[in-house]
Amino acid sequence: MSPVGRLVDLVLFAYELIILAAVIVSWINIELPRGIADFLEKTTGPLFRWIRDNLPSTWGALDLAPLIALLGVWVVRQIVHVLL
Fold it and tell me: What beta strand segments (E) does 1-84 contain?
């Protein structure tokens, strides 16, 4: 894989970790320093909102946005592995 491909893969992997951290924080409901909470909201919030706005609401209270986001990032990483 080229250096650009590795960099893109690293950034996407970091974003996967950020999504997982946001999910864990929302489940556990722990008090985080304001900067960390703001960072998680600013980095994952827009994507989650876009997915929620475009996802049919047939799932009730089950929030599938993080799962779909992780799946989307994984697909992009796989494409990067093939192309770069």
Answer: none
Q: How many CA atoms lie within 13 A of 69 on its CB side?
A: 24
List Cβ neighbours of 30 (8 Å cut-off, separation of 6 or more): none
pLDDT single digits (tens) 45-71: 999 999 999 988 777 788 899 999 999
Dihedral of CA 27/30/36/41: which sign? positive
Measured from the Cβ of residue 8, the count of other Cβ atoms closer than 10 Å reads: 19
Q: How far is CA 53 from CA 2, 25, 40, 66, in A?
A: 36, 22, 19, 13
Calpha distance 2→44 (Å, rounded): 28
